[in-house]
Write a structure and sequence with these properties.
The chain has 749 residues and is α+β, with helices and mostly antiparallel strands. It folds into three domains: 115 residues, no CATH class; 116 residues, no CATH class; 295 residues, PPM-type phosphatase domain (Phosphatase 2c, domain 1, 4-Layer Sandwich), CATH 3.60.40.10. Helices cover 26% and strands 20% of the residues. The chain contains 16 helices and 31 strands. Strand 9 and strand 10 form a beta hairpin. Helix 3 runs antiparallel to helix 6 and helix 7 packs antiparallel against helix 8. It is globular, with a radius of gyration of 29 Å.
């Protein structure tokens, strides 16, 4: 029964009218009303359902609350307490499977003396019209009703999560059946649990998976039994080896899945721009179907540089990347190594980056005058979808269960969260949070970090690629259910939806160009009649699928640089040699060996070669580059302040860049503090003075500050990130044209 006191306030700051919780749009201004059901981490609440906490959070049950004021930023944890939630922050690249921190409810009374941590987008089932919610089923409950493809898909996702969670000390979350929920094809965790002093092992994972064997589909029952036994017996010793085994099984099942793919693209200049700097592939207003087309590829690019050449960069990127990828996909899908393809996609992006960068250099473009572009690309191959991106153009995955943003923007806000310095909803409120930390063409490929991911598809889905002309102000989250979901129910098609989404972008936002690509993936799967052949490789080169990877540049125009083709098993070729050849071959080898030793015995001792022992210098294996933090500060590093600093009558605003000069311990300091000597870097927004005026410039300011104070006042930039302290780097993070305030919504859709 709905609580009469439950009121949902409009998020439009010019309206904020109260609405019934069941409504989708504001009664007064027609703004979409976000429904944010939040998970309470830990043992649950001691408050009764229907109570309002902190004047905004409606208690649904002991573990779920509802935010009645979604337009107001939630209270964020104090910086000193971030260590408790740092695993959530650092694992934000895996947010498809792991909830993220929304905020906290401060201590209220003896029932919550330590405050309450809230997690957003938990695996809950809601209908949006009532306050009744329930958890998505856990893995064991849903296991028996799933197809063989989905069963292996769930295990594949857990295998890919194992190493990242283990490195953050929370891998035991993958051993608790209560925490592992499934939402359609996705594995989603309710929350993270800290590991004990002894880290969990793959043996324990095998013991957990062993109980799944009995209800596994016949085609994979033997494979599941073999995998769990191999984990327990330590025949599978790493997550990489486990992923390789599951990939092999999925590839065999993939032969029973026949996808049908439709792609449609559309672009528009928008009401506020003079020219369109976006670009897409296939060309705008083109519908591509596979079959009959042999390949399917969708790309969206958002040019940076305005009149300086953003449209040139985006079109150059489209032209180059589609040629590179078409070269990669000439290999038959069942001969493609997924890990190698991910690397090759990133290398293709690096080729594009270098082409644009070289164009900038040839035209002597520097700093903010350099042209560049974002990129997001979708490549469906067999039962998989490959997504690659740089910048803040996004990819969304829409299923019947929900809408999921699968890319993480390459901006300042995401960087702070990924490094464990801030909660996302707090980070995006800071000035400059949307500034890009990387884009194609702005710097050499050695400092470029494209992101490539792959997803197993076992149900119908729509992938939306879009520039920020649509994604800004949460328009996709607001309208996916009414506009995109009908594609999956057969009520509309990609052409009509593309038209509608561009209209929404222009009328609800209208501050930028808009470009979208819709990829409709339809599945026709038939259960195999025969069992899969279990195969446990001894050594594998397959890497776990990490959402963040570093590309190595190579020339993909070279036909020898194609995606690796999986060779035939060499052992099988040896076994095929005729027996009448093998016996003479053995006799020849034995005779040759005997003759060699006889010759050696006849040689004088002085003529026998003596092994030389030159002074060979062994090159030490370089240590992996550690993440730069305030705690391990070193000379020459660059720090960006995240709050105003006032010290010795000097005032430095938020966003000031400093370079570390030195660091000295403070004698007799109780907490072993040290004094850091910093030098202010040039303001990136200040024009460079002429050479003859350099002598009249004021000296650079310096700042001496305790390390303990600096920890809560700044963040360390990582290698490759642009900053004004570098002579050859652009003066500041790459900025898109500023977004204007969105136009007020007038009519519900």
């Amino acid at each position: 029964m709905e609580n009469d006191a439950a009121t949902l306030y409009c998020p439009n700051e010019l309206c904020q009218a109260p609405n019934p919780i069941s409504h989708k749009f504001c009664l007064r201004c027609s703004t979409p009303l976000p429904k944010r059901y939040l998970w309470v981490q830990g043992d649950g609440l001691s408050f009764a359902a229907g109570e309002i906490l902190a004047d905004r959070y409606l208690v649904i049950d002991k573990s779920v609350v509802f935010d009645t004021q979604p337009g107001i930023s939630p209270q964020a944890p104090e910086l000193d307490n971030l260590s408790d939630i740092r695993p959530y922050l650092r694992l934000i690249p895996y947010r498809l499977n792991i909830p993220q921190v929304y905020g906290i409810i401060p201590p209220i009374d003896e029932r919550s003396p330590n405050g309450i941590l809230l997690l957003e987008k938990p695996p809950l089932l809601t209908d949006g019209t009532t306050q009744e919610v329930k958890l998505c089923p856990n893995l064991i409950t849903a296991w028996g009703d799933a197809t063989s493809m989905r069963q292996l898909n769930w295990l594949w996702q857990i295998a890919n999560l194992w190493q990242p969670l283990l490195s953050e000390g929370v891998a035991s979350s993958l051993l608790d059946p209560y925490l592992i929920r499934v939402e359609g094809s996705l594995v989603r965790l309710l929350e993270l649990r800290n590991d004990d002093s002894t880290a969990p092992s793959l043996i324990q994972l095998g013991e957990f998976w062993q109980q799944l064997h009995k209800q596994a589909k016949p085609a994979i029952a033997e494979l599941i039994h073999k995998i769990s036994s191999s984990l327990i017996n330590e025949e599978i010793r790493s997550a990489e080896q486990l992923i390789a085994v599951l990939d092999n099984g999925l590839a065999q099942l993939g032969r029973s899945q026949k996808p049908t793919i439709k792609i449609f693209t559309k672009t528009d200049t928008g009401p506020s721009r003079q020219r369109n700097e976006d670009a897409c592939y296939p060309p705008p207003d083109t519908l591509v179907s596979k079959p009959p087309q042999p390949t399917a590829l969708a790309i969206v690019c958002d040019g940076i540089g305005g009149h300086e050449g953003g449209n040139v960069a985006s079109n150059l990127a489209i032209e180059t990347i589609q040629q590179q990828v078409n070269q990669l996909t000439k290999v038959p899908s069942d001969h493609i190594d997924p890990a190698m393809l991910l690397t090759d996609l990133e290398s293709a992006v690096a080729v594009v980056n270098d082409k644009i960068s070289q164009r900038n250099d040839s035209e002597n473009r520097q700093g903010r005058k350099r042209m560049g572009t974002t990129l997001v690309m979708a490549l469906p191959i067999a039962h998989e979808m490959y997504i690659t991106h740089v910048g803040d153009s996004r990819a969304y995955w829409i299923t019947r269960q929900g809408c999921y943003q699968v890319t993480l923007d390459d901006d300042v806000a995401s960087r702070e969260v990924r490094l464990g310095y801030a909660v996302y909803r707090e980070a995006i409120e800071q000035s400059g949070s949307g500034s890009l930390v990387q884009a194609l063409g702005m710097s050499p490929s050695t400092s470029l970090h494209p992101t490539s991911q792959r997803f197993i598809l076992d149900e119908d889905a729509v992938f939306l690629l879009t520039s920020d002309g649509l994604s800004d102000f949460d328009r996709v989250e607001d309208y996916w259910e009414t506009e995109i979901l009908p594609i999956l129910t057969g009520q509309t098609d990609v052409v009509e939806v593309a038209e509608k989404l561009v209209e929404i972008a222009n009328t609800k936002n209208g501050h930028d160009n808009v470009t979208i690509a819709l990829v409709h993936y339809q599945v026709n799967y038939v259960e195999p009649q025969s069992s899969l052949t279990p195969f446990i490789p001894e050594n594998v080169s397959t890497k776990a699928v990490e959402p963040t990877r570093t590309a190595q540049t190579k020339d993909l125009s070279n036909p020898n640089a194609k995606t690796q083709v999986i060779p035939e098993n060499p052992r099988a070729k040896i076994a095929q040699l005729p027996l009448q050849w093998i016996v003479p071959l053995i006799l020849v080898v034995a005779a040759g060996t005997f003759g060699y030793f006889l010759m050696r015995l006849r040689l004088p001792l002085s003529t026998q070669p003596v092994a030389s022992n030159p002074d060979t210098t062994v090159q030490p294996t370089p240590e992996p580059t550690a993440v730069r933090k305030i705690e391990n500060l070193a000379q020459g590093w660059v720090i960006e302040t995240n709050r105003e600093i006032i010290n010795s009558k000097q005032k430095f605003p938020k966003g000031t860049y400093f370079q570390v000069i030195d660091q000295k311990p403070i004698p007799n300091s109780a907490n072993k503090d040290s004094l850091v000597n910093l030098q202010e870097c040039p303001n990136p927004d200040t024009p460079t003075p002429p050479k003859d005026a350099a002598a009249s410039q004021p000296p650079k300011k310096t700042l001496r500050i305790e390390l303990s104070k600096l920890q809560s006042s700044g963040i360390v930039l990582q290698p490759g990130e642009t900053n004004p302290c570098e002579d050859t780097a652009p003066a500041a993070p790459v900025n898109q044209p500023p977004a204007t305030t969105p136009q007020k919504d007038e009519n519900p859709t």
